[in-house]
């Protein structure tokens, strides 16, 4: 009985740590965007940074949630030239790649650093998750970063999207992403 309770506590702790690492990964992705916005437009141009849902930390412009479902950086997109958009929206996936490589380094050296075997596995999984986060965000579906990069090129070919059109595309893109994600989980199982 005591062994079962101990295993349950270890499982709960592992779940919390894993959720925390995912939230940190989302936060680093969004901070990549925020850093480039601040460098290009000034730090006051960053209006809000959000990583995760069900907010547990609320700062001046930073909101961090416990569920690593979504994140964004809010800034005045209308007053930023398309060339800056490209840099801003590639910065998040670049930050995710950087984070993935940090986790790979931890994965590689975790045994030498004296970490238990399960941490070795966690670091490897987090490296893969951050590679996936970078790649997924580069898919050109609204409202992902890949779409924002594509959208930055549209004025060059004479296409200008209104705020309403962008909002509708983002809404339907988000619905599409959710349906496909839930479908994937339903077909393949949550462990994938």
Describe what is shown at a glance:
With about 190 residues, the protein is α+β, with helices and mostly antiparallel strands.
Structural overview:
65% of the residues lie in helices and 14% in strands. With 192 residues, the protein is of the alpha+beta class. Strands 1-2 form a two-stranded antiparallel sheet. Helix 1 runs antiparallel to helix 2 (82-109), helix 2 (82-109) packs antiparallel against helix 3 (117-137) and helix 2 runs antiparallel to helix 4 (145-153). The longest helix has 40 residues, at 2-41. The protein is globular, with a radius of gyration of 19 Å. The mean pLDDT is 91.
What's the arrangement of secondary structure elements?
Layout: H1 2-41, E1 46-58, E2 62-75, H2 82-109, H3 117-137, H4 145-153, H5 163-188
Antiparallel strand pairs: 1-2
Helix pairs in contact: 1-2, 1-3, 2-3, 2-4
Q: Averaged pLDDT, please?
A: 91
Structural class determined from secondary elements: alpha+beta
Sheet of most strands: 2 strands, antiparallel
Topology pattern, helix = H, strand = E: HEEHHHH
Helix percent band: 55-70%
Q: Radius of gyration in whole Å, from Cα?
A: 19 Å
The unreliable regions are: none
Estimate the strand proportion: 5-15%
Counted by DSSP, the helix tally is 5
What topology, given as strand order, has the largest sheet?
Answer: 1-2
Q: Quick one: overall form?
A: globular
What labels describe this entry?
about 190 residues; alpha+beta; two-stranded antiparallel ribbon; 5 helices
